[in-house]
Amino acid sequence: MEKQHYTLLLVEGEHQPPSVVRRYLEQCQKTEFSVDVANGFHESIARLMSDRFDLVLLDMSVDGLIATDFLKHANIVGFEMPVIVLNDDRVTKDVSELEEALLHLGASDFIPQSELTRGLLERSIRHVVERKYIETQIAQLLKRDPLTGLGNRLIFEEHAELAIARARRNSYQIAVIFMDLDRFKQVNDSLGHHVGDLLLTLISQRLDRSIRKSDVVARIGGDEFVLLLDNIERPNNASLIAGKILHAVTRPAIIGEHSIEVSASMGVAMYPQHGTNCTELMQKADMALYECKQQLDQQFLLFNERMQEKLKHMLTLERELNHAIETEAFELYYQPKIDLKSETVIGVEALIRWPMPDGSIRMPGDFIPEAVRTGAIIPIGEWALEVACKQIAQWRDLGARIPIAVNISPRHLKLPEFTGKLLEKVKRYDIDPGLLELELTEEALVETGASNIFILQEIRQAGVRIAIDDFGTGYSSMRYLKVLPIDCVKIDKTFISGGEGVELSDPTITQAIIFLAKGLSLDVVAEGVETEAQKQTLKDIGCDKVQGFVFSPPIPSRLLNQILFPEIGYKAQETY
């Protein structure tokens, strides 16, 4: 068997005669060593600064060589090689306490002189070096994207901070670019994830070939990439380079039998104009990318002051949202659903509101997009479901069965624990699951994918109802309606009250949707009914259930209670 060879620094006391350690190292049978000897603390640190070693043997057999000082200094300057401490336990009173302290400072092993043998020393050296090698390999794997082989966010941030430090010293600029592929989800959905993965690998190779050796590219998730362009003379140069990279990336991709048109969008941020650390630059490049995606005629955008103000607003809103979640500052308002034949309340839709200290109300359109962007929509949705289940139980205790529909995000369906948490709430409040309805928009339902269809089926089999909201605004078809596990179709208000007059804005499409849904044995609810004329027309064309301001705006539960119960003059009707 071929012997392992290691370079080793043996640190001894300044006036220490050659120790038994040197003889043991020469006698090792499975390992060869190139041994350099350093005498004392200062010489050992100097050697570490100038040469590379596989490990350090720190011999403490002579008083005055303080291992703690050595290890502390090694930590400060960033030495990462393993260190084995050999201690003369004949002069050390509390060996266990010293061992614990040295291991805490980063020593890889601690061997008392009284236990030291050639075999133990060789085994310890091989073990700590091999362990360090494995740790290094794992660390490298953790910094690499397993699909494309590019670096990931972790290694990008390390390179970026070093590049920023160089740019600061040498007074030059660098650029951070966020890039993602346009319509990548359509590739996955239509051609399969295998083709999508091959496309990402191809794009990664194109990116890697299109940058300089001094630049860095990393994949940070899905179809998102981040690039660092080092030593840029002026922002215009960054835009020119971004254009060249886009040109290289967006050539058609031939994958198997498929020819895929590739397009991408980029957001650019510059050091030091837009940020002085990696976090700021990535945040602003991401913001520029977001703005770029909103403008269909742009492929890349440089961060600007207008985005700065928007970013400040977003960050402020994010902090306020987190505080509102922690303090449960939101409130559910309820808009009644009405049966047109009996004109009784047959259910309600829960709509979130955010009361402000000054008495004003923040509407969902002001904060839900930011909640979706940051992920805050998850705890907000959980809170809404909790409050809705509690409200169903309270109305039940008052003698009424009032179904509540709650809007949820498709992000909830991606959580493996979502179904369990939902059904736990139903069980905890001891409510009929049929009185709880989950509403997802048409687009969200279609984009949920096969795995989430299974989740919806599981929820529905447990008795919870599923509704498709804003129907008619997306790209659903009869095929989707037949496949999706839903109970109810809600016709989008643009077909009801989107016109200039008091009549239905599009009665032909509305009637077609009603006919289609009823043919599939689905309930139909028309949203946004504002006039008596609209209500009557809906009734004439076969719509049984409606919701809108003609009956009631969304109102707090305390006001809704005045409508729901017989003693106030209204009757709550059992349904479903």
Helix content: 40-55%
Give the overall shape.
Answer: elongated
Give the CATH level 1 class of the largest domain: Alpha Beta
Note the gap between the termini: 77 Å
Output the CATH homologous superfamily of the largest domain: EAL domain
Biggest sheet strand line-up: 13-14-16-17-18-19-20-21
**Mean pLDDT across all amino acids:** 85
Largest sheet entry: 8 strands, mixed, barrel
CATH topology of the largest domain: TIM Barrel
Q: What is the name of the CATH architecture of the largest domain? A: Alpha-Beta Barrel
Output the structural class.
Answer: alpha/beta
- Number-wise, the strands total 22
- Tell me the number of structural domains: 3
- Per DSSP, the total helix count is 22
Strand percent estimate: 15-25%
CA radius of gyration is 33 Å
